[in-house]
TrEMBL record:
NCBIfam families: rpmD_bact. Gene3D superfamilies: Ribosomal protein L30, ferredoxin-like fold domain (3.30.1390.20). One of its GO terms (cellular component) is cytosolic large ribosomal subunit. It comes from uncultured bacterium Rifle_16ft_4_minimus_37862. InterPro entries: Ribo_uL30_ferredoxin-like_sf, Ribosomal_uL30_bac-type, Ribosomal_uL30_ferredoxin-like. This is 50S ribosomal protein L30. Residues 6-54 form the Large ribosomal subunit protein uL30-like ferredoxin-like fold domain.
């Protein structure tokens, strides 16, 4: 059985974010606006998303 995946999209610019928030977004693998990455649905990734929810859009991948 395949594990659950999350599709994360950077919807707002990183300009104006604190250095820690910017590092979190980069650690998720996002560099440009509207760029999408897919991650496993783990507690670690969920915690990173929770730190910068105002610049991300998260959806479940089928």
């Amino acid at each position: 059985m395949a594990s659950k995946k999350l599709k994360v999209t950077l919807k707002r610019s990183m300009i104006g974010l604190s250095p820690k928030q910017e590092a979190t977004v980069k650690a998720l693998g996002l560099r440009r606006m509207n760029q999408q990455v897919t991650h496993e649905d783990t507690a670690t990734v969920r915690g990173m998303i929770a730190k910068v929810p105002h610049v991300l859009q998260v959806s479940h991948e089928a």
